Amino acid sequence: xxxIMIVDDATTVRMFHKGVISSINRxxxxxxxxxxxxxxxxxxxxxLFLVDINMPKMDGYRxxxxxxxxxxxxxxxxIMISTESAKQDEERAYRSGANFYMSKPVDSEQLKxxxxxxxxxxx
Amino acid sequence: xGLKKKNEVSFETESSESERRATARTYEQxxxxxxxxxxxxxxxxxxxxxxxxxxxEVFIERLHKETDVTIIEALxxxxxxxxxxxxxxxxxxxxxxxxxxxxNGAIELFQLNPVEFASQIDNIxxxxxxxxxxxxxxxxxxxxxxxxxxWLHEIALTDTDINVVGTALDKLxxxxxxxxxxxxxxxxxxxxxxxxxxxxxxxxxxxxxxxxE
Lengths: 123, 213
Description:
The complex is a heterodimer of chains A (123) and B (213). Chain A contains five helices and five strands, in the order E-H-E-H-E-H-E-H-E-H. By secondary structure, chain A is α/β, with parallel strands linked by helices. Chain A has one domain: Response regulator (Rossmann fold, 3-Layer(aba) Sandwich), CATH 3.40.50. Chain A has a five-stranded parallel beta sheet, sandwiched between helices. The two termini of chain A are 17 Å apart. The mean pLDDT of chain A is 91. Chain B is mainly α. Helix content of chain B is 62%, strand content 0%. Chain B contains 13 helices and no strands. At the A-B interface, helix 1 of A face helix 6, helix 9, helix 11 and helix 13 of B.
């Protein structure tokens, strides 16, 4: 069973993203910030992270860098989902180690299809 | 303590007697020390400048450059001692910092000083940067201010950026009240078809009671 983690400090955003991908039958973890995400991911490895950028304690860029530096998590896929739509923010996300970048508010169908494709599922 | 010469500052701080510095430095030296490559020198400069009643602008300016987490904390602690509306105004640009510690430190300090934060609301809400406005909404959501709900209503009703509106609605799930119900139909109409906005509005109706009840 592959695991997904949604990392966002906004409760309703986590609920919304969870609802969008709930039809993909996977275990879904949640975290409010990068610190909590890292702690949870090191206990139970995560295959796919959906990561917000602006969060307290540890932001999405830093979380992504931490993921890439750890053997247990290095191969995980990271989709960065942010309100920041400037070109330099997208580039910074990729430089931090993100595999995909989406701007908020996400297109629900687009997110579902992308997550399914990453996990090798048919939608 | 020895006699103080003109332009020298005393080293009185809240720390214990044993932590006091042995030699006096001028204000100009302390300002230079703030940029020292030695963290301990920077830390002492903050303490001594704070004790001398230095302007907040000095600390705010340093926060734009500082990278050490403990020094950033010390600088915010220095600002917190005599936080004013002027301090709050000077700190607005810190919300745009690339350094998450600086940004979060500013957010926390605003949250601890709701009255001074309130004095800057108009400046932030009118800022061109939607990310800054989102940080403002985050602060409003956490700040203990009687106007917090009204501010969130206004932002949800008028902001032009969908993510700012979404963040305001998210915060209303935490601090909204009966008056929020009057706002929701207008926001829903303005952002019809946006699935996230519709999703949060439904949550708010569930929490606060629908208009039909």
